[in-house]
Amino acid sequence: MKYQPVIGLEVHVQLLTDTKIFCGCPTKFGSEPNSQTCPVCLGLPGALPVLNKKVVEFAIKAGLSTNCSITPRSIFARKNYFYPDLPKGYQISQFEDPICQRGWLDIQLEGQAVKRIGITRIHMEEDAGKLVHGDLPGLHDGSGVDLNRACTPLLEVVSEPDLRSSDEAVSYLKQLHQIVTWLGICDGNMEEGSFRCDANVSVMPVGSDTLGTRAEVKNVNSFKFVKQAIEYEIQRQIDLIEDGGTVVQETRLFDPNLGKTRSMRSKEEAHDYRYFPDPDLVPLVIDDEWVERSRRELPELPEQRRQRFITELGLPEYDAEVLTANRALSEYFEAGVAAHGNAKAVANWVMGEITRSLNDSGTAIQDCPVTPLLLAELLKLIDGGTISGKIAKTVFDEMWKSGKAPHVIVEEQGLVQVSDSGAIEAIIDGIMAANAGQVEEYRGGKEKVFGFFVGQVMKASKGKANPAVVNQLLLDKLKG
Amino acid sequence: MDTIDMTIHGLHQALESKQLSSVEATKAMLARIEAVEPQVGSFITVTPEQALAGAEAADRRIAAGDMDILTGVPLALKDIFLTEGIRTTCGSRILDNFIPPYSATSWEKLRDRGAVLLGKLNQDEFAMGSSNESSAFGVCRNPWDTTRIPGGSSGGSAAAIAARQATATLGTDTGGSIRQPASHCGCVGLKPTYGRVSRYGVIAYASSLDQVGPLTRDVTDCAIMLGALAGYDPKDSTSVDLAVPDYVATLPNGVKGLRIGLPREYFIAGLDADVQKAMDAAIETYRRLGAEFVDISLPHTDYAVATYYLIATAEASSNLARYEGVRFGHRSANAEGLIDMMTKSRSEGFGAEVKRRIMLGTYALSSGYYDAYYVKAQKVRTLIMNDFIKAFADVDVMLTPVAPTPAFKIGEKVNDPLQMYLSDIFTIPVNLAGTCAMSLPAGFSTDGLPIGVQLIGRPFGEEAILRAGYAFEQATEWHRASANL
Lengths: 480, 485
Ligand SMILES: [Zn+2]
Known about the structure:
- The complex is a heterodimer.
- Chain A is of the alpha+beta class.
- Chain A has helices spanning 53-65, 166-182, 223-242, 288-297, 302-311, 317-323, 327-340, 343-361, 372-383, 389-402, 406-413, 421-434, 436-443, 449-460, 467-479; strands at 3-14, 69-70, 73-74, 77-80, 90-93, 100-107, 115-126, 130-136, 139-146, 153-159, 195-205, 215-220, 250-255, 260-266, 276-277, 284-285.
- Chain A starts with a strand and ends with a helix.
- By secondary structure, chain B is of the alpha/beta class.
- Chain B folds into two domains: 3-261 and 394-480, Amidase signature (AS) domain (Amidase signature (AS) enzymes); 302-379, no CATH class.
- In chain B, strands 1-3-2-4-6-5-10-11-9-7-8 form an eleven-stranded mixed sheet, with helices on both faces.
- In chain B, helix 2 (22-40) runs antiparallel to helix 3, helix 5 packs parallel to helix 6 (179-185) and helix 7 (219-229) packs antiparallel against helix 15 (462-475).
- In chain B, 61% of the residues are buried.
- Bound molecules: zinc ion (ZN).
- Zinc ion binds next to loops of chain A.
């Protein structure tokens, strides 16, 4: 039998606010355990949560960027369960009436039609703390609780079960990742858990309209693992059914070392979270004016920018895709175009030398030592014939190292292109005299030797000879 | 007049005119506490050092001419208010060793005005009770008859006033926990409108119902205290940003033409004859003062107690989840592993009534029961609120009994939770409606036990009930009586 996988994703997006969602503690990490805490995030008796408005603004941005409706009156709820890293014995989250509802993202796999993936909801919630095991101050081989992370803001983005393959899931996830990092509301670091994904996976016979029982796969913290985990889980469920077994509803943990999922808890062991509206927080009212203000403040999104690069700047689709991979890169490119004018020329350099140098040195585009203005200046030197494209690469390397302006480097190192035919003729004469044999070969019909002469001239001129002039003069002289 | 008998405004005059220092007043109170505490048991923790330090600081302020009406006044707080560096138990074994690192907003407000802290008062465990008998720190007795309960849950707050151990006290009221003990102990007790006073730093029982309020010797003191406590607190999202009126200034405006509603559902068969008599006399007094009476109906009154015990317990089951021995409070010494530690810490730390309510609330929120219990209770709560809104279209305030009977005997209802829950039948609807109400001394039973009547006001209509209470007090002598200890 053929099976159809059905996949839905729940993504936790850690927000880049300066302070926590319900108190004024800083969100920065790496500090002494429990140093970034206060009565509220410690869950002390009598402490009360106060909503950080920045979190709401980020949530609205995320919602508008994923085509969601913003709920005019949304409500916080308590999700009740006991765990030592959960100081109040409940997590403040949203259950009924989350802030964003009914959105979508379009994905497109290579060679396939565009497909719309529904987003059920986006809600705001607080993170838990974390447990630390081992030797702790004053405690040998014990367990401790670090609540620095408790109460940091998260968005949970829940998709409809519209995804049908691991590739679709990864494509959706990458697009969501691109949007939240583009908006600057999340650093997108999957390894550190700033952007983490749980996958709900089930299979059903092709042609069936009854969904199979799903398993929830947790702890998949890279795009590669998402693909692996989903594929493993699909195959596991198919094998199970083919062997006459039944899939049980359960939570499974992905083990990246084994590439497998294993059972964590069954439905019977699942918590009854006893959700109810948090009486400590008043309903969150968001009027149309607030939504419209947020809409106006939204940056141009990657998809829109990609389209504009194609239609307005005339870039090929491939270039437009590459140059909108992240917001900083696209902004660098646009600044370069603004300063230079030729989009394709700038695109070639950004996708070529710039990207290569960034990758080689592990530098982020934001820290690129060659600014868009300097890059534009370099390209103008080429346009004006001051330097050749080849010399430009030498100049670029020097710009990267020293941060100097290209005209300074050209001047200091005497790299101005030589177009004076007298000077080039003298070089050619010398080379022809020293390589009489090759001159004979060429004149005997072996035209391939022409390249040898070009190379020799360029070498002798240290690359500064204008290639067009060299070609013309060589042709003339070799013909005799 | 004896220092211990003074009101806030009386003591203020004495301090201002230098007849008395705050240190002298505070010492008098501490001596009184020491003398009668064995008979009463109002306090869980007495803080003489902090009290004297506070009094000295107040005297310096007074000498410097930087004096507020509360400067130098010795107060005591229900042990539900967090006090930085001072043990705060909430009447529970589970917080036996809890020293808070911060203070409740309401205490900070009083302290900043120069009030002096005498100590922390006895209460029902986690404010769950109507008799103070669920306290883990011993019985609190009614100063008017020490075989009887003082009421609850703010039993210590009322008993301390009646026993003249503090000039004024703070309590909290979730279903009547200020008004019922005030009535039983013959003092004035006000439950402000929900959102009028910050709940920050007050240990939560039922967050949508809890409200902080004062217990005092007279209505003027009550107005003074409310003025100091009321106001928006950025740390409490449910506190309301509304200007605080000068409650004292409008006290003498009288009740001529005031329309007082008598909700017929509150005058039930089986109302204690002495309570009925006090009610009749109060109606007569108000009539004489020029008020008009209107017969009104609050038709969903019968459902209030059931509704309360679903909503309050549901919220409590969640609010009390944080007491599991991980970060503070009691941790079981004989537990193995995590779950066992949490379970045993809670089993050992909580008393029977608290456990009963956690279980009730957990049940009401459970999957499969949530709609039938919690959601339905919320719907009924809306109906009860609407009852009040409709009735207040016709009247300015309402007048009702506070409790169906005067203070009952210690132990009388301990084994009959349902009877105990019915003690709050007239006070609970006010919390569900989120509005304000005050208990006012209005007479004595044939056994010599105090009886209070309740004035209920519109949301944020504290001015009206304080004014009505003041007019009543001016026309009667009930508030001047004092317990013979
Ligand atoms: Zn904090």
